[in-house]
Input
Amino acid sequence: MQTLLVIIRAFAICAFVATAASGDTLSDVKAAVGRLSARQPVRATFTTEQLVKSAGRFASGNTARNVSADLTHDENGLAIAIPQALIEKVSRSRRAGDASAIHLIGAIRSIVIVEAIDFRDPFLDLLEGAK
Output
């Protein structure tokens, strides 16, 4: 009987220590994510696809925009390089009378790229709503 009592006490002590040591898991995750710095060098290609549909009295049509940009992230910051082929394509299209071609380069949104490279702040915002 005393052996069973000792085992129960040991189990209770272990459970108490484990609970006290773990603390608040969500707070621990928030603290760990908050310490991330996103300073490591990264080279990547960012690709976006947009489908634009319009239907109306004066114009109807579907437009697909597929655009890529080269990214370099290091201790100096983030550099977004628009490929020369895309710049030339937009230039040719504008000369041919396609005014909507300028939106190809505009589809590369810098804030979306920044959040893709360093997702710390949006992730912390998501965790803030978690309970």
Remarks:
- The CA atoms of residues 69 and 82 lie 5 Å apart.
